[in-house]
Amino acid sequence: MINSPFLSASLVSREAELQQIRQILLKDGDFLLVGVPGSGRRTLLREAARAANARILEIDCLRSTSASQFLRRLANSITDCFTDPEAIALLQKWGIDQPFTVELSPAGQARLVWHTPASKEWPLFEGLLSLPQFMSEHLDCRVVMVFQNFPHIRSWDRQGKWETYLRQEIQRHSRVSYALVATVAEPWVYASNLEVVHLLPLSNEAMARWLVETMKGENLQFSGEDGAIALFLSYVQGHLGNAIVLARRIWLDHNAYNYADRTIYAHHVHRSMLTLVEDLSVNFESLVMLLPPSQVRVLESLALDPTDSPQAREYIKKHQLSRGGGLQGALNSLEQKGLIYGPKYGYRIALPFLEFWLKQRLA
Fold it and tell me: How many C-beta atoms lie closer than 10 Å to residue 10's C-beta?
């Protein structure tokens, strides 16, 4: 199997955001990281934690559909973070007065276990959430707790009890930094002490530098005569995740066809883009089927006819969109899902491959 240089990417042109987050962590502060999926949020957080010499715990709220699943992911993130003998001894000490125990595998890996019915899980949440603070104090280390896709906690926390308590703990804990990750900043954030870090699409200049340097490492270069780089940039629109996937596909295609000429031309970029989006079409079809018709209509309209004023009367009439609150609700929901940018960035589709697929589908 060929080892792909694109399987993971180091930090690309996020030096300012990296320094901002590092300074927050060094003062044990808390923050919200805002960006669409594929913008490099996870890579940035890990780099910032490394730069601040902090241990990092990651919990993906999107993958938790119940309180029980959330608690298990929280517990696993703690034991994945604290693995050395001194830390495990502290975990065992902490568990003496808690509704869970620490089990060790033959390899010495710790696991927090409990036998608590769902109706009595609240004390588990309180204990697990305070555990990183305890570990940080006794190990004299910096800890950052990352809650990916934070708003999805509401999918099972219908009354907001768990989210409210978590927000309180963010304010109370002094030795643990909390990093909440979402696609948009909600109003409550600005009323809190959370700093907000925005990840915008990368500039064409930054993207081009990364692309040229990465391809050069694989003995590939872009033609300077037919606009190959410009075409690539138009396809990815500053979206790092899409850029990595397309660059990898171009690289794989060159290896597959075994071209003697190591130059990438515009027709190579276009062919790779077509086959890549064709491979992704099943995912996009599934996505569209799950969205309400009003949101699908908005996405199709923005793909075919980009505008920064979808609420304009002429635009609504032209594309037969719902009026008033229905349209605004669709726009807000699409922004929350990370499928479009909001009014601050012109209501454009946030996932370039999805936009390309919609155009092909509707042509």
Answer: 9
Six-digit token string for 318: 């032209």
Distance in angstroms (rounded) separating the CA atoms of residues 363 and 361: 6
DSSP state of 340: B
Residue 333, Cα to own-chain centre: how many angstroms? 17
303-338 per-position pLDDT tens digit: 999 999 999 999 999 999 987 778 999 999 999 999
End-to-end distance of the chain based on CA atoms, in angstroms?
37
Residue 174: the pLDDT is 85
Q: How far apart are CA 344 and CA 337, in angstroms?
A: 16
Three-class secondary structure of residue 168 per DSSP? helix
State how far the Cα of 334 lies from the Cα of 291, in Å rounded to an integer: 9
Q: Note whether 212 and 181 are within 8 A (CB).
A: no
Residues in the chain, total: 363
What is the number of other CB atoms lying within 10 angstroms of the CB of residue 76?
A: 15
Sign of the four-CA dihedral 144, 149, 152, 154: positive
Interhelix angle 204-217/240-257, nearest 10 degrees: 30
**Rounded distance between C-alpha atoms, residue 361 and residue 300, angstroms:** 10
Distance between CA atoms of residues 271 and 250, nearest Å: 9
Please name the residue that has the structure tokens 């990281």.
Answer: 33
Cα maximum dimension of the chain:
70
Cα torsion 306, 311, 316, 318: sign:
negative
Specify whether the CB–CB gap between 224 and 60 falls below 8 A.
no
Q: Which residues pair with 31 in a beta bridge?
A: 179, 195
pTM for the model stands at: 0.89
The answer for residues whose C-beta is within 8 angstroms of residue 104's C-beta and 6 or more apart is: 88, 110, 111
Burial of 159 (0-12, 13-18, 19+ CB in 10 A): exposed
- pLDDT score of 4: 61
8's enclosing H/E stretch is none
The SS3 assignment for 157 reads coil
| CA of residue 154 relative to chain centroid, distance | 18
What is the pLDDT at residue 90? 93
